[in-house]
């Protein structure tokens, strides 16, 4: 039985409960500082366009409390439940000593293990984007259900300055990054676009590629590189046949389209659940009896069709 939900007026805020926490780390050098500030500005502009709350740490003159304490306090103050997403974006440098990865802040740095503890209470949709060098261990420790984790590197040993973050910030509102042409750029599309631009930079410069961004949103902590995707679907899987990444990230969007703005958070959650079930079922096509496959597919498609019919 279809559930009819009220649709808000066109002028309603697009991301009423969504929030983005931008953390700009220690620059080290003026050139890096200027670049980090530009990245933060692009994120802030996207947040304004998407009508979601943006909290920026690390750009204002150092307060009495450290950025480490401010980050911990800011996360503690955020709602832990709900349907709207919380985005945590780390812009800066990282380090890895072979055992522990850290993100460099003004003052004490924050480790992946510490951040994992701070984020443990969250049950709302969560995206953590670490654009720093040496960031891969953050993916391993932060991965969980209902989360998207993106890192600029596939290993803690990729220690050179990462350009992925700049390209990701630029992709957020770039129409060319809208790969499925639905009028908005999802986090998955931004990840794929930024990864492509980063690889092109090294190729054109004739330099060895020293950063390989990863995306994890199935909770297995493994991550998937951009070159495993064809379009918006991952076509390669890890050797242990883990689930596909990308299905959750495709639903994270900072600047929603006009049609997306009309949906309530409850409607979006319902739609996303139905569509994800269809996509997961399609992965079983070669593993099932054909008649059973199509019978079950029909059972999944009917509620989705009713949802869109009720929305009209």
Structural notes for this entry:
The protein is α/β, with parallel strands linked by helices and 312 residues long. The chain has two domains: 19-257, Rossmann fold, CATH 3.40.50; 263-312. 38% of the residues lie in helices and 14% in strands. The protein has nine helices and twelve strands. The chain has helices spanning 30-50, 67-77, 112-119, 136-142, 164-171, 187-205, 258-261, 265-282, 290-311; strands at 19-24, 53-57, 86-91, 94-96, 101-103, 110-111, 126-130, 147-151, 214-216, 224-225, 229-230, 233-234. Strands 2-1-3-7-8-9-10 form a seven-stranded mixed β-sheet, with helices on both faces. A hairpin with a 7-residue loop joins β9 and β10 (224-225). The radius of gyration is 20 Å and the shape is globular.
- The helix/strand class is alpha/beta
Strand tally, please?
A: 12
Give start-end ranges of low-pLDDT stretches: 1-13
Order of strands side by side in the largest beta sheet? 2-1-3-7-8-9-10
**Radius of gyration, whole Å:** 20 Å
Q: What is the string of SSEs from the N terminus onward?
A: EHEHEEEEHEHEHHEEEEHHH
Mean pLDDT across all amino acids:
88
Topology (SSEs and partners):
Blueprint: E1 19-24, H1 30-50, E2 53-57, H2 67-77, E3 86-91, E4 94-96, E5 101-103, E6 110-111, H3 112-119, E7 126-130, H4 136-142, E8 147-151, H5 164-171, H6 187-205, E9 214-216, E10 224-225, E11 229-230, E12 233-234, H7 258-261, H8 265-282, H9 290-311
Parallel strand pairs: 1-2, 1-3, 3-7, 7-8
Antiparallel strand pairs: 4-5, 5-6, 8-9, 9-10, 11-12
Helix pairs in contact: 1-5, 3-4, 5-6, 8-9
């Amino acid at each position: 039985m279809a559930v009819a939900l009220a649709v808000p007026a066109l002028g309603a805020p697009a991301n009423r409960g969504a929030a983005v926490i931008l953390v700009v780390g220690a620059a080290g050098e003026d050139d890096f500082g200027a670049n980090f500030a530009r990245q933060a500005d692009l994120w802030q502009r996207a947040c304004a366009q998407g009508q979601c709350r943006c909290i920026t740490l690390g750009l204002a003159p150092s307060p009495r409390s450290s950025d480490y304490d401010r980050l911990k306090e800011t996360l503690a103050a955020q709602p832990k439940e709900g349907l709207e997403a919380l985005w945590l974006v780390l812009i800066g440098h990282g380090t890895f000593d072979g055992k522990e990865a850290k993100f460099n802040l003004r003052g004490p740095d924050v480790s992946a293990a510490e951040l994992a503890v701070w984020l443990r209470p969250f049950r709302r949709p969560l995206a953590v984007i670490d654009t720093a060098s040496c960031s891969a261990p953050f993916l391993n420790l932060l991965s969980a259900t209902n989360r998207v984790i993106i890192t600029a590197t596939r290993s803690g040993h990729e220690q050179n300055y990462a350009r992925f973050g700049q390209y990701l910030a630029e992709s957020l509102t770039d129409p060319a990054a809208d790969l499925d042409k639905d009028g908005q750029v999802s986090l998955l599309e931004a990840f794929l676009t930024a990864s492509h631009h980063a690889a092109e930079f090294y190729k054109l410069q004739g330099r060895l590629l020293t950063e390989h961004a990863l995306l994890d949103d199935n909770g297995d902590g493994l991550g998937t590189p951009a070159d495993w995707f064809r379009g918006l679907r991952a076509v390669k899987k890890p050797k242990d046949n883990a689930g596909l990444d990308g299905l959750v990230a495709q639903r994270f969007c900072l600047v929603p389209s006009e049609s997306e703005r009309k949906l309530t958070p409850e409607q979006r959650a319902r739609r996303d659940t139905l569509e994800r079930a269809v996509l997961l079922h399609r992965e079983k096509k070669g593993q099932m009896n054909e008649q059973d496959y199509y019978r079950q597919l029909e059972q999944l498609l009917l509620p989705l069709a009713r949802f869109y019919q009720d929305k009209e």
